[in-house]
Design a protein that fits this description.
Radius of gyration: 16 Å
Number of helices: 4
Mean pLDDT: 86
Strand content: 25-35%
Strand order of the largest sheet: 1-2-3-9-4-7
CATH architecture of the largest domain: Sandwich
Structural class: alpha+beta
CATH class of the largest domain: Mainly Beta
Largest sheet: 6 strands, antiparallel
Order of helices and strands: HHHHEEEEEEEEE
Low-confidence stretches: none
CATH superfamily of the largest domain: Jelly Rolls
Number of domains: 2
CATH topology of the largest domain: Jelly Rolls
Length: 180
């Protein structure tokens, strides 16, 4: 996520917003936004989603370097987002440009038992557990999914993904419209 801060600053300025405006729109502190824009802090996934929603773009906006790339995404060429503590890894299975749906591979390493801040955004999500077990909390209701289970929900409902036990879980998610 190199240079993410400068891209956020450029987009904010292009929309004639100051840091206070973006803070108000995203619910993040002005100090945190300032540190992110100066690349002093790597934003969490939750913070990044709040910023992209406030700025009216998707996560793909910050990763699209080439607009004329293949629709094919090779395993070793996936765009990957790793949380600071490496407890969550998100791999984009679809190109980050010109699409109506996105597919994401999510790996939880077994250390995500604490509840992170729930997020919400426009759209719908459907997830399928390939390996292990995970917990999906939607509007405070805890759903335990095991290998082979799937879940669907409206993304506007606050939600968060967590590990179920100390083992790795791997799941595939479809989201529309794209938010990454």
């Amino acid at each position: 996520m190199a240079n993410i801060g400068s891209k956020i600053r450029e987009l904010r300025r292009a929309k004639n917003l100051n840091i206070t405006d973006l803070s108000s729109m995203s619910g993040l502190s002005t100090g945190l936004i300032s540190e992110i824009e100066r690349d002093k802090v790597v934003p969490t996934i939750t913070a990044m989603l709040k910023i992209v929603n406030a700025l009216g773009v998707t996560m793909g906006y910050f990763f699209d370097e080439e607009k004329d790339v293949s629709a094919l995404v090779r395993k070793n060429e996936r765009r990957t987002i790793i949380t600071d503590d490496k407890s969550r890894i998100y791999e984009l299975l679809t190109p980050t440009y010109n699409r109506q749906i996105e597919f994401i591979l999510i790996k939880l390493n077994g250390c995500t038992h604490r509840i992170e801040e729930a997020i919400s955004h426009d759209g719908e999500e459907c997830g399928y557990v390939i390996k292990g077990s995970m917990v999906v909390i939607v509007e405070g209701k805890r759903h335990v999914l095991h290998e082979g289970d799937s879940i669907y929900f409206n993304s506007s409902k606050p939600h968060v993904y967590e590990s179920y036990d100390d083992n790795e879980s791997i799941s595939i998610w479809a989201m529309t419209p794209p938010s990454w």
